[in-house]
């Protein structure tokens, strides 16, 4: 943890220095950085109360009161009694305040654009996505459900997707289940066989992405006798318990019902208890179990089946 703390402190120093490039008076404007920040928030949330600004900015009430008085004197804001409570004053920008804010925003936008010119398009995407993640993780009300709200879902494969899915399987199963590198070779083989016979009309794969990076996957492969196999169901640990896995599983099984498969089956091991709980909640039942020594472990390979012949099972 000591190394992580030092890295965060180092980033704090770096970013403080970076913000210092704005100087004491932001972009040579009439107000300091702190004052301009208050003006930005008023423009963003108007009409807004002083109490709301205190909560938004985490500022001392006395300091904020002085700034409000200065803005009022400069005629950049106007205070009016709230219609709901005459004791409460709401703050809004005047036309002069809107003009000053627009100029500040324009200069700020230009400064950022000039900074980004030295980066490639991919580097800009990396920077913006990283900033979004930092903002999420450091927010006062953070939970991984906040991240899940920014997860996107797509169907089908793009170049590079399979390689990354193989990587995820190799890393996560080694870390969490103790599987050897032989397991990664097994995953490579299964994806190779899949791509050899990939029929987009019958075989489906759905991906969950965050910041354009894959964090979840599930696939349905059509099999003889009107059966389907569920494969490669995986969710990154950070996003477990957020509904991402449930969404993927529900999407896959809805497709199976629409295609009127008689049966859906999957193969797993007894190590994957969390996934098994989801399968059984969705209606899958154990149908076979064989003890095997593979991937550096002694484990039970298990088969689970979901009977759809009467379309009687529902997704939980």
UniProtKB/TrEMBL annotation:
Give the organism the record lists.
Answer: Mucilaginibacter achroorhodeus
What keywords are annotated for this sequence in UniProt? Transferase
Official protein name in the record: MarR family transcriptional regulator
Lineage of producing organism: Bacteria, Pseudomonadati, Bacteroidota, Sphingobacteriia, Sphingobacteriales
Residue stretches making up the HTH marR-type domain? 1-136
For this protein, the record's PANTHER family field holds: GNAT FAMILY N-ACETYLTRANSFERASE (PTHR13947), LD18367P (PTHR13947:SF37)
Q: Which domain of life is it from?
A: Bacteria
Q: What SMART domains does UniProt report for this protein, alphabetically? A: HTH_MARR (SM00347)
Q: Name the Gene3D superfamilies on file.
A: 3.40.630.30, Winged helix-like DNA-binding domain superfamily/Winged helix DNA-binding domain
Asked if the record carries the keyword Chloroplast, the reply is no
Q: Where is the N-acetyltransferase domain?
A: 162-305
Any one GO molecular function term: N-acetyltransferase activity
